[in-house]
């Protein structure tokens, strides 16, 4: 390669960009079957907690949307003036 050539890497829109915000962990092979099983058991204990948090967050979002609708209606009534 001549000194004036540059090496081009994959574009930011390519496969390397799929990680998104950089929080994606690289996939690695486990050195042993026992470590893989330990990891799986850990995930089995953590995933239900995340699922419960997701359900709770969705319910809260629905309540907030309903409250926002009510508040928007209150603002509209106040903007119309006294009844």
The largest β sheet comes out as: none
Helix content: 55-70%
Overall shape: rod-shaped
Distance between the termini: 81 Å
How does the helix and strand content classify structurally?
Answer: mainly alpha
Instruction: Output mean pLDDT.
Output: 79
Rg to the nearest angstrom? 26 Å
How many β-strands, per DSSP?
A: 0
How many separate helices?
1
Q: Note the run of SSEs as H and E.
A: H
Low-pLDDT segments, ≥5 res:
5-19
As an assembly, this protein is single chain
Strand content: under 5%
Word description of this protein:
With 83 residues, this protein is an all-alpha fold. The model is unreliable at 5-19 (pLDDT under 50). It is 58% helix and 0% strand.
Briefly characterize the structure.
Helices cover 58% and strands 0% of the residues. The chain has 1 helix and no strands. The longest helix has 48 residues, at 33-80.
What topology emerges from the helices and strands here?
Elements: H1 33-80
Question: What attributes does this structure have?
Answer:
0% strand; 58% helix; single chain; rod-shaped; mainly alpha; 83 residues; 1 helix
């Amino acid at each position: 390669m001549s000194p004036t050539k540059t090496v081009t890497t994959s574009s930011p829109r390519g496969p390397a960009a799929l990680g998104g915000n950089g929080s994606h962990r690289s996939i690695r092979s486990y050195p042993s079957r026992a470590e893989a099983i330990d990891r799986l058991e850990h995930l089995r204990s953590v995933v239900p907690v995340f699922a419960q948090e997701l359900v709770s967050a969705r319910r809260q979002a629905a309540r907030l949307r309903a409250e926002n609708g009510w508040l928007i209606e209150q603002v509209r009534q106040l903007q119309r003036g006294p009844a």
